[in-house]
């Protein structure tokens, strides 16, 4: 078992603070999935196969509406699109990984994996496949397990308004948006997509406000960006590896 | 074909969503390992995607629900400037319970 190495134990140690931060959201996802009419089996399958909190929240949020299935898939894709940047930045640094190990590692690649790996890279510490799985396995078990627990617990909540649960998703998304605030052109993008989505919500109606608002924000970001490369934001600042 | 149409839509959503997610996680590396540089405008657009999508899920709730919901979101936005996502969520949850109780 080459995985039970010092590298693997370092990964598990790195997973501890992350698990404390992630724990409430695993339970929240399970509870809200059931709240939105999804079965525990389906919610658990979603956690096991997608393993991406924000996109799963968006998925169940839209699943509760009459939106077309392909639109839900597109929204999941859109929310997870940031992983393209992580994969582009981290991939070339995984020099000691075999092809299969890269394929496995990318399946589990989240914001947490990206930031933890970049931190070790910054500190000159190794982040081999053993470390990666040491970080991943506890998190994965927690996330999938909590979906089941949250789903069971969610069924006991018959009046979500009394607990403010219906507002937790918007607050959660707002918190994530605020976390992006140091990215370049963050405020113009938020204003553009906020205005466009509100306008679309009031005229064309839901669910089109999601696509229209997102496209407006992304197009505006491309429009106001110069043609000269700028200093990358912290999420992908170590790109001088090329 | 009957077998395929018998499977509930949610399973197709989950499988297609998982495939799309894996494509994003592998795709960036596949692209970068073939090309030298991403054009700055494309890079800026990709950078803006998550904030743009998630904003659309907050803005209508901020402007079309009641005052208690709007105040909660404003408060949560301020809390998020200083504190973690978990603290923000607790603050937002506490605010909406309190404000709804006050508004009867």
Please give a structural write-up.
Chain A is an all-alpha fold. Chain A is built from 11 helices and no strands. Chain A is globular and about 55 Å long. Chain B is mainly α. Chain B has 2 domains: 36 residues; 65 residues, no CATH class. Chain B is 85% helix and 0% strand. In chain B, helix 3 crosses helix 4 and helix 4 runs antiparallel to helix 5. Chain B is extended, with a radius of gyration of 21 Å. In chain B, 42% of the residues are buried. The mean pLDDT of chain B is 86. At the A-B interface, helix 1, helix 2, helix 3, helix 4 and helix 5 of A face helix 2, helix 3, helix 4 and helix 5 of B.
Brief descriptors of the model:
heterodimer; A: 242 residues; mainly alpha; 2 domains; 11 helices; 69% helix; disordered C terminus; B: mainly alpha; 5 helices
Q: What's the structural blueprint in terms of helices and strands?
A:
The complex is a heterodimer of chains A (242) and B (104).
Chain A: H1 6-35, H2 40-50, H3 53-63, H4 69-80, H5 82-90, H6 99-107, H7 111-122, H8 129-154, H9 168-179, H10 186-202, H11 208-224
Chain B: H1 2-6, H2 9-32, H3 40-64, H4 67-82, H5 85-102
């Amino acid at each position: 078992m080459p995985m039970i190495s010092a590298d693997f134990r370092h990964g598990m140690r790195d997973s501890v603070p992350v698990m404390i931060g992630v724990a409430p959201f695993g339970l929240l996802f399970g509870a809200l999935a059931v709240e939105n009419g999804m079965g525990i089996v389906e919610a658990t399958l979603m956690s096991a196969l997608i393993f991406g909190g924000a996109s799963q929240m968006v998925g169940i949020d839209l699943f509760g509406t009459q939106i077309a299935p392909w639109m839900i898939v597109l929204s999941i894709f859109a929310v997870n699109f940031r992983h393209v940047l992580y994969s582009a930045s981290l991939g070339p640094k995984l020099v000691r990984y075999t092809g299969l190990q890269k394929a496995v590692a990318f399946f589990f690649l989240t914001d947490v994996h990206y930031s933890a790996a970049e931190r070790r890279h910054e500190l000159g510490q190794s982040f081999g496949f053993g470390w990666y799985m040491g970080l991943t396995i506890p998190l994965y078990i927690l996330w999938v397990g909590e979906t089941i627990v949250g789903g069971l617990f969610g069924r006991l909540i018959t009046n979500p308004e009394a607990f403010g649960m219906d507002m937790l998703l918007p607050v959660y998304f707002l918190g994530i948006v605020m976390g992006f605030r140091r990215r370049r052109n963050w405020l113009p993008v938020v204003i553009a997509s906020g205005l466009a989505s509100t306008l679309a919500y009031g005229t064309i109606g839901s669910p089109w406000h999601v696509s229209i608002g997102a496209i407006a924000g992304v197009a505006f970001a491309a429009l106001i960006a110069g043609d000269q490369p700028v200093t990358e934001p912290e999420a992908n600042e170590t790109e001088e590896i090329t | 074909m009957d077998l395929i149409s018998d499977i509930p839509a949610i399973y197709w959503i989950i499988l297609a969503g998982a495939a799309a997610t894996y494509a994003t996680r592998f795709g960036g590396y596949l692209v970068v390992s073939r090309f030298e540089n991403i054009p700055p405008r494309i890079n800026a657009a990709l950078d803006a995607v998550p904030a743009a999508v998630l904003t659309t899920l907050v803005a209508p709730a901020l402007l079309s629900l009641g005052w208690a919901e709007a105040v909660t979101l404003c408060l949560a936005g301020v809390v998020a400037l200083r504190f973690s996502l978990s603290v923000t969520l607790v603050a937002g949850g506490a605010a909406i319970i309190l404000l709804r109780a006050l508004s009867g």
